[in-house]
Write a structure and sequence with these properties.
heterodimer; A: 150 residues; mainly alpha; Helicase, Ruva Protein, domain 3; 2 domains; 6 helices; B: 168 residues; alpha/beta; Glutaredoxin; two-stranded antiparallel sheet
Chain lengths: 150, 168
């Protein structure tokens, strides 16, 4: 990697990291409403009008005002309502499957595509372009092309 | 793949027997109440339902943000005191609620009967509960009998079902 490419990558990484850090240190109610579920209606907090959702929004506002980070607020909610209060499943235990299965599916699909491409290329290699697979067919094709040219 | 299917099966079928309870009650039968062990609201250890065998139990799921729960809180406290000599235990299960809110609620309504915490609502789901408040009545053998009351209890309904579990 050239020095220039390295510098560009580093700047891009910094640009992406700064908002993430700011969001972690100074979360907003709107952000957390995308990441927290209403425990009774099983909808995102932002979509829920259930009484407990109102109470959770008030709790989040209080914790933001107290200076809690996003992780701290989420952890407090998990200690009250369990892991299901988080919109994204935790990366452990049975819930790890929710993260692993799509990756396994992607890997499986990539393997199948790779196998198909490999087989296709193998067949292509077995029949070089300059040697017709069927000489009779090639002869008829040449005749018909000649008629078109005439 | 087999392991994955097994795990999914366990997850799907561990949901509990809530619908079975309602079906049994609708057919006039009894069904074993799903056992649970939950932390006490006051933080002093856990309480296992099985430990109450030998006592008729009024099992009441509630939350501090639930308005009908406020209406029935006094009735339940009164019943807990009135039937204590008969061995009746009123057990409150505070579900999907903040601990601090639940403690304030218990203090405000003068609740002295035991309360446990089901923050995630998973125990309520195992009973087939879908809202608040919901109440089941358990006989001395730990079977659900009588009505599954959805919504606020009335004095008459509470007395009728308590009479049923005391007689059972």
């Amino acid at each position: 990697m050239s020095v220039r490419a390295f510098l560009v990558s580093a700047v891009l990484a910094l640009l992406l990291a700064v908002p993430a850090t700011a969001s972690e240190r100074h979360p907003t109610l709107a952000e957390l409403s995308h990441e927290v579920m209403c425990p009774t209606c099983k909808q995102l907090l932002e979509l829920s009008h259930a009484p407990v959702a109102d109470r959770i929004r008030a709790f989040i506002k209080t914790r933001i005002a107290a200076g809690d980070t996003k992780s701290e607020i989420k952890q407090r909610l998990v200690s009250e309502f369990g892991e299901a209060v988080l919109a994204s499943p935790p990366r452990q235990g049975f819930d790890l499957l929710a993260w692993l299965l799509p990756l396994l599916g992607l890997a499986g699909s990539a393997t199948v595509v790779a196998a198909i491409v490999w087989r296709w290329r193998g067949h292509s290699a077995a029949a070089p372009d300059d040697e017709p697979a069927d000489p009779e067919l090639a002869r008829r094709l040449d005749e018909e092309l000649a008629l078109l040219d005439a | 793949m087999g392991l994955l299917l097994a795990l999914l099966g366990i997850q799907v079928f561990s949901g509990g027997s809530g619908h079975g309870l309602d079906a049994a009650l609708a057919a006039g039968k009894t069904a074993a109440a799903p056992d649970f062990s939950l932390p006490r609201l006051n933080g002093e250890g856990t309480l296992r339902l099985h430990s109450l065998r030998g006592h008729p139990v009024v099992l009441n799921f509630w939350a501090s943000w639930c308005i009908p729960c406020k209406q029935e809180a006094g009735l339940l406290e009164s019943a807990a005191k009135s039937y204590r000599a008969d061995g009746l235990v009123v057990l409150g299960v505070d579900a999907q609620d903040f601990r601090s809110d639940a403690r304030r609620f218990a203090k405000r309504y003068g609740i002295t009967y035991p309360i446990v915490r089901d923050g995630s609502g998973s125990t309520l789901a195992r009973y087939g509960g879908t809202g608040f408040p919901e109440t089941w009545f358990l006989d001395r053998r730990g079977n659900v009998v009588g009505e599954h009351v959805k919504g606020a209890l009335t004095r008459e309904r509470l007395a009728r079902n308590i009479a049923a579990v005391l007689a059972g």
